[in-house]
Amino acid sequence: MSGSTQPLLVLSDVRKTFGGVTALKGISFGVGAREVVGLIGPNGSGKSTCVNVISGALPPTQGQISLEGQRISGLPAHQVVARGLARTFQTTQLFGEFSALDNVLVGANVCQRQGLLAQMRGWRSARRDTADAQVRALELLEFTGLADERDVPARRLPVARQRLLMIACALASRSSVLLMDEPAAGMVASERRMLSALIRRLPRRNVSVMVIEHHMALIMEVCQRIVVLNFGEKIAEGTPAEIRANPAVIEAYLGHQQ
Ligand SMILES: Nc1ncnc2c1ncn2[C@@H]1O[C@H](COP(=O)(O)OP(=O)(O)OP(=O)(O)O)[C@@H](O)[C@H]1O
């Protein structure tokens, strides 16, 4: 882990098997506070499995994952979000008919402390919460460059802007760690530049990021540290410059090209 950052998300010896296939062979790494960490590797190296295991979509076969010192491995996805870890997906997970603003408000509800019953009992404070959520949602739309599209149904937004909206929704849950699964997929260069600027601004909002991405230039630009997987094993970890020059990483990528 780099410099002075404290580990926020920690994976210790995480293993995942699917029948006879071992997708993760005992992976360990951490993500520090306000750090952007990239997870890369050739096709089939275990990146998606890693994200699925961290986010609670799949239980690990072995090993531990903790967030802010609390164990999250084995918890279902909604409890992982409630503990402060949100993710964005490769494919759109938005409510297509809802406006951009309403999608962000749904994201905020994921973590709203007041449950439905409490809201019914305490109408006044519930109304204040709703007003607060609205202000915050508008600020997140501003932050992700979607303020002008606040009333546009999500399905009408171009794919790249839907991806930005997914980021706004994930941030609305007030998570301390954001897992991004191929956020640049389907984006053209100008959209990638916008995404890159957005990711680099996240640590200033006290959000740590783990990003999986095939677009190497984007990874090299936004990450302070990169973890490289190959055949379910961590083969390297370091700064973008270290990773770029690492013979095992070059070999892994060249091997796959052949
Ligand atoms: N549900 C599953 N059942 C069986 N095998 C699986 C399952 N999910 C993943 N695998 C296997 O686990 C290994 C890692 O796959 P994973 O999708 O995690 O890799 P990846 O690095 O995300 O690949 P890509 O870059 O192509 O998305 C592969 O051999 C894959 O076939």
UniProtKB/TrEMBL annotation:
Residues 9-256 form the ABC transporter domain. CDD domains: ABC_Mj1267_LivG_branched. Keywords: ATP-binding, Cell membrane, Membrane, Nucleotide-binding, Transport. GO terms for molecular function: ATP binding; ATP hydrolysis activity. It comes from the Bacteria. One of its GO terms (cellular component) is plasma membrane. SUPFAM superfamilies: P-loop containing nucleoside triphosphate hydrolases. The keyword Glycosyltransferase does not apply. The keyword Oxidoreductase does not apply. This is ABC transporter related.
